[in-house]
Design a protein that fits this description.
By secondary structure, this protein is mainly α. The chain has one domain: 23S rRNA-intervening sequence (de novo design (two linked rop proteins)). It is about 85% helix and about 0% strand. The chain contains four helices and no strands. The two termini are about 25 Å apart. Pfam families: 23S_rRNA_IVP. It comes from Halomicronema hongdechloris C2206. This is Four helix bundle protein.
Length: about 120
């Protein structure tokens, strides 16, 4: 699973990059776009950092950082849709993937905490 999730988070980042590249050249779109570009591409970086963790606590901390970035990415996706900057239906697949990645990260955090020696 780790290499699959490594690829999946990288694919998510690439989709975010393509979304940013397709945004209109308006001030609102560019401001929101830069925010989502930063948060959406950070998810995979946090995941990779987690696998270099020296302890369970550090692993959990890095994954929680990824969860924060996913939540932020969802927020920017909502703003892009609700501001009608981009057609909401075009954002649904990205929102769904962010939700699925969130569920996976939550499960990884729970499993790590449950397996941690007392």
């Amino acid at each position: 699973m780790p290499s699959d999730l490594k690829q999946r988070t990288k694919a998510f980042a690439l989709r975010i990059i393509r979304l940013y590249s397709a945004l209109p050249n308006t001030t609102v779109a560019q401001v929101l776009g830069k925010q989502i570009l930063r948060s959406g591409t950070s998810v995979g970086a946090h995941y990779r950092e987690a696998h270099r963790a020296r302890s369970t606590a550090e692993f959990v901390s890095k994954l929680n950082g990824g969860l924060q970035e996913l939540e932020e990415t969802n927020y920017w996706l909502e703003l892009l849709a609700e501001s009608e900057t981009i057609e909401p239906s075009r954002l649904n697949p990205l929102s769904q993937e962010a939700g699925e990645l969130t569920a996976i990260f939550v499960t990884l955090v729970k499993n790590a905490k449950n397996n941690e020696p007392a």
